[in-house]
Amino acid sequence: HDVPLQETFDATIAAEQRIEPRDWMPDGYRKTLIRQIAQHAHSEIIGMQPEGNWLTRAPSLRRKAILTAKVQDEAGHGMYLYSAAETLGVDREDLTTKLIEGRQKYSSIFNYPTLTYADVGTIGWLVDGAAICNQVPLCRSSFGPYARAMIRVCKEESFHQRQGYELLTTMMRGTDEQRAMVQESVNRWWWPALMMFGPPDDQSPNTAQSMAWGVKRHTNDELRQRFVDMSIPQAQALGVTFPDPDLAWNAERGSYDFGEPDWSEFMAIVKGNGPTNLARIARRRAAHEDGAWVREAATAFAAKQAGQTRS
Ligand code: ACO
């Protein structure tokens, strides 16, 4: 007789195999994946803005070319992730509408302004570094299209992280003023980078179920700790410090102790009240509306091509 669908799903998860779009899946599994993948895609797209801010003011042709390539990569990641979400039966147009109406979230990190050019380096190093730390385990996520998308995304994020670090090492070899600019930038981005991993485990409503389903592979706090541990030697090599008096090696745990991020700031940002939330969404909405003619032309062209093939 037929094995019940739920049993087949559970057995696939238990055997660490992949769930594919045509497989039966519980509604909750589908919903949580749409939520996470859409939020992830929106983050990539909104994430183009803070760095895009420096494209016209990059200090050399080489830096401008690198930054342009990087921002284009983020657009590619967003498109790739919207495609992964579409395999779950949602429509990209609908997801974009939800984003610009504030009904779906995107990462808190992209609601801070990029005040100096050093921020381009710091975002590459710390923000993309945190993204890699969070996303490498997602290459083993139980949903096939998401896991496969993460492989390519992580490769490109590694390039982004290195370009950021290299930019900062160049500035650190420069003048006192440049070194101060790097330190000031790191001071502003450190705590927001730690918040990227989400709320503490005891305040994370989704983690337990997402881990049981193999959607997430580690808790928010586990990944935050991993990020702190990997970042400290990098900061030492660079010659900067993190703005946390509680940072200290804990020999017993074999990890660094660190202070508590300001979770009230995090909550305010997630609710849409961060320093740049309104501007980010307004910009996205304007780009979407200004691009309507491109979508219309592409749709008309595709219809014409399809007509020609038929005749
Ligand atoms: N920014 C904004 N919202 C957040 C953040 C954050 N940094 N962290 C958590 N949240 C939201 C969650 O989306 C959730 O809200 P929802 O239930 O309305 O969707 C709520 O806060 C509670 O959090 P959790 O229960 O911990 O949510 P979840 O299990 O989804 O974990 C996490 C959050 C770790 C961000 C997870 O979704 C994830 O790994 N996503 C994939 C990576 C990603 O989206 N990265 C984007 C930034 S990196 C980049 O694009 C360069």
TrEMBL record:
Keyword list (alphabetical) reads:
Oxidoreductase
Pfam families according to UniProt: PaaA_PaaC
Task: Look up keyword Lyase and say if it applies.
Answer: no
Q: Name one GO molecular function term.
A: phenylacetyl-CoA 1,2-epoxidase activity
Q: Which EC numbers does the record give?
A: 1.14.13.149
Q: Which InterPro entries is this protein grouped with?
A: Aromatic_CoA_ox/epox (IPR052703), Ferritin-like (IPR012347), Ferritin-like_SF (IPR009078), PaaA (IPR011881), PaaA_PaaC (IPR007814)
Give the enzyme class.
oxidoreductase
Is Oxidoreductase a UniProt keyword of this protein?
Answer: yes
Give the UniProt record's GO annotations in the biological process aspect: phenylacetate catabolic process
Q: Which GO terms describe its cellular component?
A: cytosol
Domain of life of the source: Bacteria
The signal peptide stretch is none
Put simply, this protein is called 1,2-phenylacetyl-CoA epoxidase subunit A
Q: Which organism is it from?
A: Gordonia asplenii
Q: Which gene encodes it?
A: paaA
